[in-house]
Design goal:
Blueprint (H helix, E strand, L loop, with lengths): L2 H4 L14 H8 L18 H11 L9 H6 L29 E11 L10 E14 L3 E13 L5 E12 L1 H7 L12 H12 L25 E3 L4 H10 L7 H9 L4 E4 L5 E4 L7 H6 L9 H16 L4 E8 L10 E13 L2 E12 L4 E10 L25
Antiparallel strand pairs: 1-4, 1-8, 2-3, 3-4, 5-9, 6-7, 8-11, 9-10, 10-11
């Protein structure tokens, strides 16, 4: 094969795919199809992979980081952050159908059954469960794609189940509509920066940890202690990539570009080197090609921040049963995300003492960028309630109510 035949042919701009009737029909024909694993990027649960994931999302909980703390805890070991399977692969990510049509991670709805522990090996069965077309102010024509995944350990025990969805937008329409024109990088006062940084540095003191939070002590309307993430920087974005183990280079990129040319382009800013269209998370110039004013965060990262909000609040003796997060607005470089929550309901189901929590991510402009909900099993002083234990009983857990 000649050098010319080996060279990957591609444009200097991200591909301009279209949402057509034929593309919709092809996507709908995939419903029920099992997808090949995206990576897997990180499959083994180890002390290092747990800590590295937490570094990538800024989680400071010692239950996920400190080996000696874990040994002294009720778990007798460190456990992983609940959303660590995102280091295996993003569920619902735009990797099937609609070639050349840009995709954004739009949300996950997780149901958890067990904690991942050191020595576990992550496996995943992901299948296509839906696709629908809608209208969007951002891009006009819009497609939402849904997948469902079962995460299993090396013993084929169900650890978590998740519904994931993404949105697909024609790049030209997104760019031309210019919904986000005029959105500038936020410039903070010294006082604003001091407030954010003081809150982040003080976060370890506000983690519940080994102090049990009982069901009887929780009141409807009670607010969770918020956490701050920001101002978002390029270092934060690269750190998240390290945390989830993503990063292909050189020949590996070329191989992927040959297989999936609709997801790559030759970037003049890199001397004509091939880059993935998702580099808009890193390069503002590429983000602007799809109608986003600047480089923007990873939706799975924001979901993990909302999860940290809840695990900080609930303490080691509770169990996070469900967490749903929907990405509604872009979180661009320079934005600060405040994750907040409020107790919406407390109740008993199947003998467990449960609380539902309204959660949301809010930027420095006061805009809600990611609403969601969480359900937590709490220890109870009422002996008629089941104890919260990390065991096979969770396999019978509570079905998601959508």
């Amino acid at each position: 094969m000649s050098t010319e035949e080996k060279q990957v042919t591609m444009d200097t701009r991200p591909p301009e795919g279209r949402i057509t009737d034929e593309a919709m029909a092809a996507a709908k024909a995939m419903i029920g199809t099992y997808l090949r694993p995206e990576g897997p990027f990180i499959q083994d649960v180890s002390i290092d992979s747990i800590r590295t994931y937490c570094n990538g999302i800024g989680d400071l909980n010692p239950l996920f980081r400190d080996l000696e703390y874990g040994r002294r805890s009720r778990h007798a070991a460190i456990v992983s952050h609940p959303t660590q399977p995102m280091a295996y692969g993003y569920i619902g990510r735009t990797r099937w159908g609609f070639p050349g049509v840009h995709g954004f991670f739009a949300g996950n709805d997780w149901e958890f059954f067990r904690n991942w522990r050191v020595g576990d090996r992550i496996n995943c069965l992901e299948r296509v469960v839906g696709v629908e077309q809608k209208e969007s102010k951002f891009s006009g024509k819009l497609v939402i794609q849904y997948t469902e995944a079962l995460f299993l350990n090396q013993h084929d025990e169900l650890m978590s189940r998740v519904l994931g969805w993404c949105t697909r937008h024609e790049r030209r329409s997104s760019r031309e509509k210019g919904k986000h024109e005029g959105v500038k990088t936020y410039q903070y006062t010294n006082e604003e920066l001091e407030k954010i940084e003081a809150h982040e540095l003080d976060e370890p003191k506000r983690i519940r940890g080994g102090k049990i939070r009982y069901f009887q002590d929780v009141k409807v309307g009670e607010e969770l202690d918020p956490i701050a993430r920001g101002p978002l920087t390029a270092m934060d974005l690269k750190g998240f990539n390290v945390g989830v183990g993503r990063g292909l280079t050189h020949g590996l990129v070329l191989q992927n570009a040959q297989r999936h040319p609709g997801h790559y382009f030759r970037n003049p800013e890199a001397g004509g080197g091939i880059e993935y269209t998702g580099i808009g998370h890193q390069r503002s110039s590429t983000a602007q090609q799809v109608g986003v004013p600047a480089a923007y965060d990873y939706g799975p990262g924001r979901t993990s921040w909302l999860t940290t909000l809840v695990t900080n609040w609930m303490g080691d003796a509770a169990f996070l049963k469900r967490l749903r997060g929907e990405m509604r607005r872009f979180n661009i470089v320079g934005d600060t995300t405040w994750c907040k929550g409020k107790i919406a309901r407390k109740y008993e189901k199947d003998g467990y003492a449960l609380v539902d929590i309204d959660i949301w991510a809010e930027n420095q402009r006061g805009e809600v960028t990611a609403p969601g909900i969480a359900t937590v099993m709490l220890p109870s002083k009422d002996l008629s309630h089941r104890p919260v234990v990390d065991g096979a009983g969770f396999e019978l857990g509570l079905p998601l109510v959508r």
